Amino acid sequence: MADIFGFEKRTLGRAPLSIQDSCDEVAIGSGLEANASVEGDCPLMSASDSLLDSMPESGNDLDGSSHGVIKRIPVEIKPRGKLGILSQGSRKDKKIGGSLRSALSVDLENPEVEKIRKEFEMYRLNKENDITDMKKKETRLQMENKRLRAELLVLQKTCTNLRAERDKAIEAEHQSQARAAAFQSDRDKVQRNFKIFRENMELQLQTMLRDKRNLEGKLHKIAHGYTLEETDISSRPDFDSSLGSPNPGDWWTALESEPSISNVSQVQQSTFRGPELAHSMMEPDGPFNNINREDWSTVLANMTQVLPPVPEHSLSSVLRIYISSPRDTHVEVDILNKEYFPRLSSLCQSAGRTLLLIHLTVDDNTTLTPQVLDRHQLTRRCQINKSAIFLAFLADSTDRFTSLEYKYGYLDNPVSRSSIFCFRETKSGRSSNNEARELKLKVREKGGAKIIDGYTSPNRGVEQVVMEVEKMIKNELGVDHKSDCEEGEEEGGGETDGQEQICGGAVWDPLGDYEQMEAFNYTIKSSCELGFERHYERLNGHVSSAGLLPPLLILGPSGSGKSLLLSKWIQLQQEKMPPTLVLYHFVGQESSISADPIVMIRRLTAQLMQQVNSPPALTADPVRLVEEFPRWLEKVSEKMGGVILVLDAIDNFSQAEVHLKWLLDPLPVDVRMIVSCNDKTCPQAWRSWPTVRVEPLSNKNVKELIHAELATLDADIGSEDGLILTHCRTPATCSPLYVMVLTRHIAGYIRHEGKIGSYLDVLLTCTDCDSLYAKVLDLSRVALETHESRGFLKSILRYIYVSRSGLSELELIDIIPNLTWNFLSIFTEVLSDHMILKYQGGLLMFAHDQVKTAVQDYCFGKDETRLVSQLRQDLIKYFCHSLSPGTVTCRVADELPWLLKQEGDKESLESCIVNLCIFQRLYARGRCAELISYWQFIAADKNSMAQAYFNATRKMEELVGQYNGLITLPRIADMYESLGRFLKDLGLLNQAVPSLQRALEIREISLDPDHPVVARHELAEPLKKRAMSIRKKVKTPRVTSGQIKSVVQRRALQLEELAIGPDSPDLARSLNELGVLHYLQNDFEAAESLFKRALEMRESTLSADHLDVAQSLNNLAALYNDRRQYDKAEPLYDRALQIRVKHHSVNHDSVASVIKHLALLYRKQGKFDKAEPMYKKAIEIREKSFGPEHPSVATALVNLAVLYSQQNKYTEADPLYKRALKIYEDSLGPHHPRVAETLRNLAVMKYEMKDFETAAKFYKRATEIKDSENNYGAKIISRRCSSSDTNSTVKNIMQF
Fold it and tell me: Mind telling me which SMART domains this protein's record contains (predicted)?
């Protein structure tokens, strides 16, 4: 390595240099070190350069022993004088080289050389140490670099995690803000709803108090002997709901929104009227104005009073009369059955109910065992409890059950039912026995019952009894004591009950509400409530949760107590929160009517519609019902603050996954749905819902349930419960149903036999409910049947098995030969007590699904197919006897078509469903889906069905006057009208018009053509209009001229003028309605004339500031406004506004509507100074009514902003637009169409202000929202697109 002097070191061990060698090296060194620092000029530079050039290039030293390494040592160059160099004058004579070598030989031995060498050696060692240190340092730095890189990676990962946590925190913050905003919105909504509720309740209470004072005044007059004339409150007919208006006088619906007047359409959010608060928020001091404290306290006490439960006999379609009659009064019972029963039965049948006289007789000479005697007593007690009327005949003697019947029928509870006692006196003057005298005395002492005594002739006594029974039946049926049938025929031709009378009476419980109440009451009676507390908490938590939630699924095996859990929870919910709207539906057997999902949806829709003011007519079209049911849920839940819907056993619905698809869609926010399903048959799509599993009972719960049931039945099994607990170890034996059936049967046996013994061992061989039910049936048959009644048990169970919904007691007695009331009553009560049968809807049916399986194995066996077909034929033959007019009941319509379909007899099925009475019975209860399914089964389309029914009605029209005058022309007209409505519900408008036209023709023929009943036939008008539009679309030639659209309405007006008079408020209302229809038909001149005539008539017959006058002023102004006759519309609007402000507060909807349209009118005229205060007033009204953050306020803000924009007042418009945008984004979300529309308005304004960059941003965002809406196919429901002035103002605000 070269040192700092430029020399190379020699290797160690080399021989000392000679002088010659030293000189050579010095020469070389001097050449290499030409730039060294020396004192003075060196004359050897040229010579050393030449020597360097002549040196070999191999790099070896002179002797060749250095192995190719040249070691150079520093040589100090001495001054010229010391080297012995001659002076300049002698250079020519001496050679330079010789003097150099001689000089070096002396200088190389100088001590400085050695010193240099030592210094060089020290320098070399220091450098080597430095290099070693640097290498170590480099290694250490590399390791440190690796460590720092690893730490950097860790820090990067930590940073990534922190960023993720930050994003989650931000998202959680946004969600909490959204929840806070939703809570704020809900709170504002509750405040608004309570305000509306408060105002409505104030009006209702004022009306009630006014009516109360009127009634008190009338009672005061009556008390002082004055006679009050009856006023006709029905002179004004109800508004026709077919015109589409839920409120009389309003053309638009209550859900309709108002338009924005901007150049971009603004959609107004739906607002609901009426009381919207579900929970009670009444203040004890009286929160309503203009009501004194005493009146408020009275009303509050009446409102909070708990109503008594509805008696069971009032829910059943069978009206029972229990007759207590000893042997010596049987003659009265025979007279009643033979002579008067048909008349009483017809009275009940006219109201859709069945009359049943129950008279149980036992020969006193017959010896009864204690077990049989106990069954007779139990049977009489149960039959009396089911009866609505207790009728007792008593002469001189009693039998063994007379005292018991009086005790249960009247003495224990005199007010539980109506009671009639007939005490006959004997002609011989023979005194009554002691028991009879005591019973008569007790009845008279109790008081409250109708007592008929003093008669000696049975006929006379029965005649008086029938008169009282008729009154009681009419009270029970809700029928007026004074029959108006004849007057109704004269006035209206039996309009309300014509087709019902042809078929055999009215329809009882058309929606099935009473049947569901019976199902609920039957389930709630159970004493099993073990382990339900934790499930109650889960159900309560689901109901109280916020946000969108799917249905809560109650899952468990059959017999695990799912129905009981739901019914108990519903009862608790109704007790704790009475105002909460809880809807429920309990599904029966798969073949029953309750298992039809369309029937369920229609029933629940009707209950939802009861929560709104003036609901529309309930359709029977199954497609519309399924489509509209979720909308009704959303509407009512938003109004009431929440709806709870409970569906039990939804897996039993026919085609559940088809008709209940709406369950898979997101439910409305305020709707909570709870459903139950069998674990084995639950569809996979439903298993993703939140689930509550009902598990089998624990051993402890089994023991508690056994003791609870025994305590209820007043029985004790002693130590035998250990055997039962040992047996109940499997899930099947630990189900509540198994334990209850086992316990009840054991208790019944102990009550009669006194001990259980080996009987228990027989029962404990059953391992599930099916086998247990089969064993109980066999043991019951042995205990109940005698030689005379052998085979009755299996016959009864078989007929119930093959029927659709069960059979009534009268039907079983008629079908099964020699079946007596005594056996049937004991049989039904015993099997009901053992949870085998239940009594619901007037029918005997199986209590549980496991019973049907047990009956199938026990009663049919291998011959099931043959026996089932034979038994069905027996039922078909029985029901076919009731197909003539006047005899077709709802039971025939329910069972006969279904039985024929099960048998596959298409020809008989077609003749059955073509029967107009069968059709009317099904249609009256909304069973169109079932009716259509029968026609589909016989491969007939809707057109063929419509033609078949029209032909059948034509044939019935030929039978007028037959069947004892039952078929009349007015009733035929009712049949035609029912057919037309049925076809209209199904969308068959072309087929519906002939039926309705024929109904009108018959009524004009059978009645006076100018009769008001004919005038009320307006149903054909909307159908004709829709039929004409359909013909126009398919380019078919018109049948009549354009005036046919209003022929029926004109005819109705003429008839009303003849029937009511030329000038009356009712006629003015008809003129107003007709004017609207003319306008919709583009007949503006006729509409204007009718509006003016209605206005003049109302001003002459009513006061000048009546609300009806304001309605006519508003309609006429709207017509002028739409025709751009603003100078005529303005004063009319002003006057209408003054009248409505006088009657309503400034926040009322009708006042706000006039203000809105008056502002629009001013804007169109360019009267911005007048329009501005109107728009500001509209904003103020909406802020007071709905709160400052409601979308309706945003729409009013946009309207005012548009007005400012048209005046180039962009500074005032900008904050209004931005506030409206914020309200829309907070309440509706950042991607709602209204947000896009407001952004577009802002973009237009910024463009006019030359702020093109901001305008581009707003327009871009609006376009993105619109594109995303189109891409995802979001179809936002808009009540009205309201941006354009070309939209008809009258169509928006016209009022009936």
Answer: TPR
Least confident residue range of 170-184, 266-280, 821-835, 1155-1169: 266-280
Q: Which of 1042, 1078, 1073 is nearest to 1056 (CA)?
A: 1073
List, for residues 484-507, the tens digit of each pLDDT value.
444 343 333 333 355 666 777 788
Q: What's the rounded Cα separation, in Å, for the pair 133 and 146? A: 20
Residue 979 C-beta-side C-alpha neighbours within 13 Å: 33
Which of the pair, 956 or 500, is modelled with greater confidence? 956
Phi-psi region of 1023 (alpha: psi -120 to 50; beta: other; left: phi over 0): alpha
Q: Is 845 exposed, middle or buried (0-12, 13-18, 19+ CB in 10 A)?
A: buried
Which residue in the block uniquely carries the two structure tokens 């329910």? Answer: 894
Which three-class secondary structure state does DSSP give residue 673? strand
Pull the structure tokens for residue 63.
């002797």
The CA distance from 1216 to 1224, in Å, is: 12
Cβ neighbourhood burial of 268 (10 Å; 0-12, 13-18, 19+) = buried
What values do phi and psi take at 843, rounded to 5?
-125, 150
- Average pLDDT of the chain is 75
Element (H, E) at 819: none
Q: Quick check: pTM over 0.70?
A: no
Q: Which residues contact 540 (CB under 8 A, 6 or more apart)?
A: none
User: Is residue 1289 exposed (0-12), middle (13-18) or buried (19+ Cβ within 10 Å)?
Assistant: buried
Cα separation of 586 and 524, whole Å? 12
Query: Rounded to an integer, what distance in angstroms lies between the CA atom of residue 622 and that of residue 927?
Result: 9
Please tell me which residue, 35 or 424, carries the higher pLDDT value: 424
Query: Do residues 842 and 316 make contact, with C-beta atoms less than 8 angstroms apart?
Result: yes
Burial (CB < 10 A; 0-12, 13-18, 19+), residue 914, is middle
Of 1096, 1094, 1091, 1097, the residue nearest 1063 (C-alpha): 1097
Q: What is the DSSP letter of 807?
A: B
3-state secondary structure 372-385: HHHHHHHHHHHHHH
Burial of 1071 (0-12, 13-18, 19+ CB in 10 A): buried
How far is residue 1281's CA from residue 1277's CA, in Å, rounded to a whole number? Answer: 10
Task: Give the position of tokens 């309570």.
Answer: 194
Over residues 1107-1125, the mean pLDDT reads 85
